[in-house]
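Re: the request from the purification team.
They wanted to know what the chain is likely to look like in 3D before they choose a buffer screen. I agreed to run a prediction and write the result into the notebook, where they can find it.
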Amino acid sequence: MSEVIILSQDDVKLCLPMNKAIQAVQEAYIAFAKGRVKMPPVMHLDVSQYNGEIDIKSGYIEDFGLIGTKIASGFYDNHKLGLPPGIAIIILMDLKTSMPLAIMDGTYVTAYRTGAAGAVAANVLAKKDSEIIGVIGAGTQARMQIIALNEIFTLKEVKVWDINDTAKRLYSKEMSEQLNITVESVDSVKDAVVESDIVVTVTPSKKALVMKDWIKNGTHINAIGADGPGKQELDPMIIKVADKVVVDSLEQCKIIGEIQHALKNGLIKEKDIHAEIGQILIGDKKGRESDHEITLFDSTGLAAQDIAAANIVYKQAKEKGMGKLISLLD
């Protein structure tokens, strides 16, 4: 029987640079748009008694010949125990035989592929000269989003707000040093939003944080945090007035994405959603068409993104002889 590669987080980090993650996510969106991906609905498990949640995403990409499953958690009190708030594991299997190929840390893959998703979307939906970014949230994903956007745009300034003052100050220090740009910790969500070309929301919030009146013409919003029932970061009126609302998967976003609230409140209908991001990437739908448009990308995260990014890690690890080989089956 074939052996399975076990890859640690350190292994994964050496095999997935951000530019490769961006390429992988774009390929995943394109495959999804072309009907080359199969994904069942996300299984969401609430563990509210421990301030936690678990999502299970799975599917396959025909072109890659891979089945992938990811179990990802968010336990928001873990820091009190000295543990990371987000933990994930990814399993890759051969599509034709279901033989297991790799088991890897999925925390880093998730962080990078989610950051990459924001960059892929902004590349076709934001103004090309975007240089000021407003970030709501100061955790790991807030870092990944800026690292990814910095691959696409020439960033001049980042304004960050977080409910935790210590977290936003640390973010400001670390990201300014890492990217050599101005990163300012601000006192309110409004301060982070009003002058920004791109607004990125990356929190576990269940109430609106960003209000419609703060969004200027020409703004692009990457709504990243809402990826479960009840989660919300935006005033639903933003979705109503936006010129183009784009989603990663309409079927998924209308249940667990940012648009769920505008749909439930009757502010929009499904037909008002401009496109899935893959439709823009393959040329079936238009991206940004003027500097005055308000655009929004609702990202809930697709199993296809995980599979595509994990595929890069798997191939790189095999080439470099990394990881540990074990036999699961006799």
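For the purification team: The chain has two domains: 4-109+304-326, 118-301.
Please add any questions underneath this entry.
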